[in-house]
Amino acid sequence: MKDREQPPAAPAPSAELAEAAARLRVLTGQLMRRLRAASEGTDVTLSQASALSRLDREGPATTVALARAERVRPQSMGATLAALEEAGLVERTPHPSDRRQAIMSLTEQGRLRLAEVRREREGWIAGALAERLDEREQAVVVEALGLLARLAEED
Amino acid sequence: MKDREQPPAAPAPSAELAEAAARLRVLTGQLMRRLRAASEGTDVTLSQASALSRLDREGPATTVALARAERVRPQSMGATLAALEEAGLVERTPHPSDRRQAIMSLTEQGRLRLAEVRREREGWIAGALAERLDEREQAVVVEALGLLARLAEED
DNA sequence: TATTGTTATACTCTATAACTATA
DNA sequence: TATAGTTATAGAGTATAACAATA
User: Fold this and answer.
1) Nearest-CA residue to the C1' of C23?
2) Which of A30, A53, A123 has its CB closest to that of B71?
3) Sorting pLDDT into bands at 50, 70 and 90, what band is B13?
4) I need a surface site. Which of A119, B55, B72, B100 has the fewest CB within 10 A?
C-alpha cells in the first residue's frame, strides 16, 4: 500500500493525501446516512431540502440551472421540484420571454419550512462542532469546509 | 440568519458554525454524487468499496461488526457482503466456537480490486487536494478530516 | 439543430418487519 | 431471552432513454 518510487516531476498525491481522500470518502458516506436518519419524520427529503436551500441562497432559478448547481440531471431535479411544488413550498412562474422555461421560487411557506428543516437537520452537526471541538479546531474545520466546497463546485 | 442574543451559558451554535453545518451538508451531497459518478464502469459499488476498505484496514470481521462500524443496519451490510462474496472479493469462514457467526475476510482478488478501486475513485479527490491547494491549506484539510471523522464515529 | 422540460423505467442504497438458528 | 444472520418489501435518490415543445 506504499509508493515504492516517488516520480520526481508529477505532484504525486502523497500517501497522506491519498489517506485524506479515503477518509473523506468514508466520512461522506457516514454523514449521508446520519443526515438521512435525521430527516425521519420530516416530510422534506434531503434533495428537496438542498434545492430549497439553494433557492433561498441564490434566488429563483430554472430546473436546468438548479440541476447544474446541484450536480444532478435535469430529470432528477425535475422530480425534486415537482414534489416541492405539490407541497406548496416552491412555485413556478413562466419565463417572460422563453416559454420553454419556468422560474422556480420559494413560497413563504417554503421559507418557513426551510428554517425548520435547517434547525432539525443541521442541528446535530453544529452542536457537535460546538461541543466536541475547541475554538482552534472549529476554525480549522470552518476553513477546511470552505476549501472543500470550492473544490467540489469546480469542474 | 444572525443570533440576536448570545445566551451566556448555552454553547449556542454560532452563526458561523450553523453555516459550516449547512456547507457540510451540501458538500456531502455533492461528494456523494461525484463518488458515484466516478464509480461508473466499475462493478464495485460505493458501499461495497467501503466494506472492502474497512476489511483491509481492520481485518476480518462479522456482518454485525461491519454494520456497526459503517453505521448501517445488519441487513444492509448483509446484502453488501453477499454481493462481494458472489464476486469472489470476500470469503466467509465459520466462527470457531459460535456457529451463528461467520467471519468475513478479503480474498486476494478482493485486495487487488480494492487497490484498483481506490485509484479510480479517490484519485480525483487526492488530485484536487494536491493541485488546487497549497501546502498550508492541505494541512488544514487533513487535520479537519481527522476531526470530522472523530465526530462522525462518535455517538 | 439546440435547449428546456417531461415521462417511463431501472438500479443502488438503505430501512423496517418477520423469520430461523444458535447461544 | 438475546444475538447473528436471512428474506421480503418499500422508499429515496439518481440515472439513461425517448419524447414534446420551444427557440
Assistant:
1) B98
2) A30
3) low
4) B100
